[in-house]
Structures are given as C-alpha cells and as structure tokens.
Input
Amino acid sequence: MNPAGFKVSDSCVGCGRCVKVCPGGILYMGEDGRPRIGEFEEFGWNGCWQCEHCLAVCPEGAVSILGRRPEDSLAAPEPDTAGEVLDSLVMNRRSCRRYQKRNVPKTVIEDMLAKLANAPNGGNKQLVEYTLVDDTGQMEYFRNTAYREMERLAAQRIYPEGFGKEAYEDMKRWEKTVRPDMLFCGAPHILIPHAPLGQGEPVQDVIIAGTYFELLCASRGLGTVMMTFPLSVLKLMPEINAMLRIPENHYIGMIIGFGYPQIPYARGTQRTVEQSRIHRLCFRKMTGTQAERE
Output
C-alpha cells in the first residue's frame, strides 16, 4: 500500500538522501539500492508528513510524491543573489497606514495564500486557517460597521483593553495626519491567520504564517500593517466580531491589513540590533590551544 503515491524513476542513483531527510522515518533503502516507502495507516506523526522533503532533496529529480513531480518545483535560489533580495525586502518593510482604494487582483492574493503552505508549522500539520476580506466594498462595510460601534462604546467610556480615554483620543487625533482610519489603517483588504488551540503549535504557526505573508506582500509591491488594536476593539462587540466567522477555540495573533500603498518610500531604513541585545552563550572555557585543536 502506497497512499502517498511515492514513485522513483530510473534516474535514481541510490544516494539515500531522501531516506535521511524523511521526518516520519518511513523511507528505507531496498535491496536493489533504491528507496522504498514503508506502510503507514495515516498521514501525520506516525506516517507520511506530506512535507515533500524527499522530492525536494533528490539531486536527480527522481522522486515524485502526493501527485507532485520534481519538474514542477521552483529551483533553489542562488545565495549570492537571494541574500541581497531578501535583505532588501526585510530592510524596506514597514507598517503601511495609507492605501490606495483599489483591489489587489484575486489571482495575486490566491497565489500568495497558496505559497503559505510552505511556511514552517509544527509537525507540518497545516492547521492554520485564513479569514480573508479581498474586496474593497466588503471591507468598507465591515470597517464602517465596527467603527460606528467603537465610537458608540467610547461615548459611554468603554474602551478596548489597554486603551484608556487619553490613548483612544490620541489615536483619533492621528487620523488627521498619520492614518485616515484608526481601526484598520484604511487597508482595502485584511487577512487573519488563526489556528485551533490544543492542536499543533497554534501560537507559533499563526505568527510565522503572518510574517511570511508580509514578506510575500512586500515582494509584490504591496504594503502591510500587522494590527492588534482591532482585535481588542472587536472583543467589545461580539455580534460584529461574529461576522468574521472564526471559531472561538482558535488562536488569533493579529489582523493583517494589506493593499497598494498610497505613499511610496524611496529607500530602506538603517536600524540595527544593539550589541547589548545579543547574548552569546559559552558553556565552557577553552584555552587558546584547545580552541585551535578543536
């Protein structure tokens, strides 16, 4: 039985790399010097992790699995060029608080969401779900509905957790300068990664997925803003929060606003991590001679 559809072509040279990287430990070398897959009852911890490591590691492109063929994979980037591109994306990322009022094409959004399947997650369980508003009209309706209720509650001196009257009024004042919308920063779209509590690693998985999505947006010329303020606001309005249809037992780390930036930036920032924030560990003291020998 081979439910994973594991196949090896004649180009296999028997290097065994696929066996060595299989996290489920279900691959082994057959008597003919070619990899085989062991029997398993279910996908997951005690079977195939569906990680496709075997397909990706094969230098000859001989392994296919889960209906995926090696010739359909993207080639690994060259470090000499990839490092510079990623450095630029990271150094140029920032919170975007002003957006153009137009939709990002659905094909672009779908492509980015598909690639999030490659974001690291605990045991490759793929439990992160994504709540999406990808239409400016729908977003405007949700924004206005939540904003009116937020103002009604503020008039009764009911503020989001961590925001008193002074902090709330600061954010209202910033609407005249920095952001036109204190609730969602005027974002035409939002994405909310969330995952079920009690399964896998929901907190880490959600945060990582959000971070990867931000980089995917940056690589496509889109601005993003990771927001926690609206999460606190929505907790005060259960009926409106329910419009998102996110299960109560799911962890939500942030709401990500995204779209085409209204104000382009000319260059990246030059922030660095202070040495006092870097803690290098050394577990035993070595003499100069020992260090050279080891």
User: Anything to note?
Assistant: The beta strands are 7-8, 27-29, 35-37, 63-64, 129-133, 189-196, 223-227, 250-252, 255-259.
